[in-house]
Each structure stands twice: as structure tokens, then as C-alpha cells.
Amino acid sequence: MMKYTRQDLKDMQAWPLERKIQVTQTRILEWYLKNDGLVFCSFSGGKDSTVLLDLARRIYPDIPAVFVDTGLEYPELREFVKTFPNVEWLRPKYPFFEIIEKYGYPVISKEVSNVIYGARRGQVYRLKRLNGEMLDKNGNPSIYNCEKYKYLLDAPFLISDKCCYHMKKAPIYKYEKQTGRKAIIGTMACESKLRLQGWLKTGCNAFEAKRQISKPLSFWTEQDILRYLQITGIPYAPIYGDIVEVKIRKGTKLITTGVERSGCMFCLYGIQNDGNPNRLQKMQLTHPKQYDYCINKLGCGAVLDFIGVPYTNKETEVLPC
Known about the structure:
It contains 13 helices and ten strands. The chain is an alpha/beta fold. A six-stranded mixed beta sheet has the order 3-2-1-5-7-6, with helices on both faces. The chain has a two-stranded parallel sheet with strand order 4-10. It is globular and about 50 Å long. The C terminus is likely disordered.
């Protein structure tokens, strides 16, 4: 049973930023009190979690933060995280190259990677989604069908959504079990279907879920995050560059002049939707050593070739004599 509707989310996303700040801090307060202060902020060093940690520490200055050092972060981001007090650093059990060798590459999205991983193992439900055969309660094609990605079944490499679990979630789960603390995370419902469905079921504070977790930024948007950083002036990771306002068809919007996202450097999720240049084309210019490792050593170049996504900058290529 759903706790909220899509219209509820739409209404909340339309709130002014001032109201969103008040409601988010109320959710953090409720979470803190319900758990007798045994909580922590999941802190990646990215702009979303930076806003979350600032909001939380304006109420509870001593609330701990937890950073999972996967070894896949931008070096500037790791240095940024070091500037914060009271941050627990965790490490995954296995390095990234072992995860992709055993399970596969993160391609298109977590949802699509999960479907491909299961379909290759004969799971009927996921095969139906790839064939466009799933129907909703009204007998119409399900929004969770993903037949446009059926071609990935024939990819000459492994594909899965396992990397996020092993690289990020597993260390956090272990920390939660050892400390008894409950997480506050900076995800937003607008980021994916999975996060939207999670919010519709539980709202911001999942007090009754199997894994109790707080997502107090769920009804925020990317523009809210950038506006908060702009009006508060709090420091954020330098890899984003400046926050500037640009004209669009229906007015203006805020963008960053640097990277758009600061997750794992070698993650391929969503790269097909990046602008031009995409994140790897930018990395070729800004972080050439990491770029070479990603494209050549990890084999991501072959993956991108298969899904038809460019990853080189013409101006950096050496022309033959």
C-alpha cells in the first residue's frame, strides 16, 4: 500500500525552498528523536549530501557522518571530505575491478542492469520486461518494461547492478549493524523510478521498513540543491565548478560549470543521457590518468562502444604525421 501519490510529490516539489528546508529539518528532527540520537548522515562529498549534512548539523552539530572510500571518487572530492570533522571513513571489502570481473559492468541504470543480470539467468519476470510483455493493473504495457535495452542480452561482457551494493551499501550495512545507528541519506525521488517508488511507499522517514532509513530530501529537486548552495554560500566540492544561471526556453535554471554528478568516477549509469561533452569526455581532459585506467584497464571503452556512447575528445587525439 502506498503512503503517498505522485500528485503529492508534485505538490511538494512545487513548494518554495524555505518550506522545503523547514519540512526536511522537521523530518531529521523526528528521525533523531525516534532513534534516541543513534543516527548518522551518509556523506559522499557530493552536492546533495553536502546540503543534507549542513541541514542536519544546523540542528544537531555533533551528528556523525559516514563516508565510504571506494577508491573510485574524484581525488578533489576525497580532499573535500577531509575538511569535515566527525566523519567515519569506511572501505569496501572488494575493489571495483573484482566486482566487474565477477558480476559485470554497471550499464544504463541500476534498474536495467538488474533486469539484464536476471534475464541472463532465465528469470521469467525480467525476461518479460525486456520483451515488453509486462502489463499494469489496467492491462496496459507496464512502465517498467524496458524492451529498448533487450540488445544488451547479447553484449560480449557481464552486466549487473551489484557494484553499488558491494562498493557502497555493504560497508554501510556493516556499520549500521555494529553501531546500531540509523542512516539519513540525501537521495531524491526525482532521480529514478526506484527512488520514486520507495518514497511513495514510505515517505521520507521509513520507520516501519525492513531497513529503517531517512530520506528527508526526497521531495527536493536538483534546482533546490543548487539554490541552497547558492544562497547559503556553504563550501561544496570544487569539481562542480561554479553555480551559474542560464537561459532556457521557459525562463532560467541553475547549472554547474564543472561535473554534473560526483559519484564513482567509472560508473556508466546514465552516461547515455549526458550532454556533450559527457562525463568521460570531460575526464579525459581533467583526469587523464583515471580516464586511461577506466577506458583501457577496466575495459569501459569496449562497453561504451557497444552501447554507442562516445568517450573521446577529438581535440585531444594525436594526429598521425
